[in-house]
Amino acid sequence: MTQSSIWLDKVAIVTGGSSGIGRATAIELAELGAKVLITGRNIERLSSVTEPSSSIEGLQIDSADPDSAEQIVSEAMASWGRIDLVVNNSGSGHPMPLEAYDPGAIANMSAVNIVAPSLLVKASLDALKQSRGAIVNISTAVAKNAAPMVAHYGATKTALEYLTRTWAIELAGHGIRVNAIAPGPVQSGALTGMMGLPADMAAQIEQQEAEQVPMGRRGTPADIVPWILRLGHSENEWLTGQVIAVDGGWSQRI
Length: 254
Fold this sequence. Notes:
This protein is α/β, with parallel strands linked by helices and 254 residues long. The protein has one domain (3-252): Rossmann fold, CATH 3.40.50.720. The protein is 45% helix and 14% strand. It has 8 helices and 7 strands, in the order αβαβαβαβαβαβααβ. It has a 7-stranded parallel beta sheet, with helices on both faces. Strand 4 (85-88), helix 5 and strand 5 form a beta-alpha-beta unit. The longest helix has 29 residues, at 103-131. The chain is globular. 46% of the residues are buried.
């Protein structure tokens, strides 16, 4: 069976789909015949993904809003009547030294990285049972080791990995597979976007990380997308509860 026939008329939700890994995932799915709902906070970025493709719809929404999950699922079901794949890609990260811990920033990371995926899985559960679909959570290779300044980002993503393994057991009886991908340093704009770092500092970190990657370079969204599709498609019937690091060996060095 070809990739295009696997995804033809299937329906995917990709949170944080207006940039980086989420954007690349949505575009690839649409090119393979799927219908895709992406979410994001910036309407211009959403439009830049949806306008070139009649198979991608956008929903301007903040994953930190606890009501967002029901709205996302309602939008997908109203448009296409089914859900085959949920990609929990939205993420929140705020670099903070211990002495500058901010309760609002910590709460936001918890809301986006833990609560939002949990509520989206809950809201989409009936549809996923019907399709015997899949869930792919996007973690981070940072969670594999201690990482100063990003303790709560790593901690909340570690929690998402625990949820991945637990949901896999809870949902196996319904034929729903739940896996996660832990990307290493990827050129996705996350340092200046999600992390909010100045451009010069981001460039310095990008260079440092590139030097640490055994494979000799930072990753790109194109390195990650095939794994999302592999874990998410219907032919993956017996792989569940796994967290796969796709990082050029970076997590073995840091």
